[in-house]
Amino acid sequence: MKKTITSTLCCILLLLAVISCTNNKKDNNTQNESSASAETGSADKASRIIEYTNLVVDMANSHNSYLKNILSNTEQIEKGLRNPKNLFAFTGVITPHLIQAGLRNMNGVTIEKPVDELGKENQAYFKTQITQYNTIFEKLQNNYKQLDDYLKAQDYKDDNGTKGYLMIDTIRNTVQKLYTGKLVLMKKVNEVADAAEIVVLKDSPLKDYIIAMKTDMKTFRNFIDLLADNGSNYAKIKDKAQAGYRELENSQTKNAALNIENAKKANKDGQYKRFYESFHDLLLRTKKTLRDAGTSGKLTKTDIDDLDRDYDGLIRNYNYFNQ
């Protein structure tokens, strides 16, 4: 399950506002004006595609914590059903809160209606996949509510937890279907958005900032995966982990010091600074985590979950920059 979650989190896409930079290109030569107009049209189309795919990613990201909390609750509930006489068996089981995101953006693009710029084939694909995903997600919410009602009514006292175990299995299977569906969606999103990104970033004055942030996020994601895959035996990867940390630290220092004049012109300097300030803070927390792991010889599930949350924070700050 962990690898599935990780794969989904890696899908970060762009929502860029660089069309004005293309529109500002002027030339007295008619041929150049015609060429610039064509480039503007291509960039407009690419930006619309990215606006839509970014909504899909926002939706997927907004569901990550909810799904992880659902799975965490099923583990705790399952333990409680094995020992229902314990007064504290279900203490701490909190109904997960879903933060809705990715439904509509400020330009009126909605996730249920893929933009025309995608082309008919991709429009049909996204409409079908989003509908299927939402149907499964609603099923999960209903399944969890039934389990929640089952616990509140203490019906496990009537059937020794039999129905509860069945509902937990159903919930876990449904979550896995959602993870699988998200991976399918993200594969298509990457395919479509990568092509659009090349067009949008071609002459963008924000290109260096975007590449810096994306590179650092990818490196940090790979770093987390290294720790997650070897957490039970940290000593085995200690040297590699320390080297990876130093690489992140050096990159943060370098990219935080980039000339931000172009970012200022686009009113993006504050968002860029915020990204690298938060990156600096999470590196300090990571340093402490590695020190503790060096002492104990392992990384806990909580350690990895905290790193995942830090990564989610980078995603949010990155998306703020691109709004």
TrEMBL record:
Domain of life: Bacteria
Keywords attached to this entry: Signal
Residues spanning the signal sequence: 1-25
Cited Gene3D superfamilies: Uncharacterised protein PF12889, N-terminal DUF3829 (1.20.120.930)
Name the UniProt record assigns to this protein: DUF3829 domain-containing protein
Originating organism: Pedobacter lusitanus
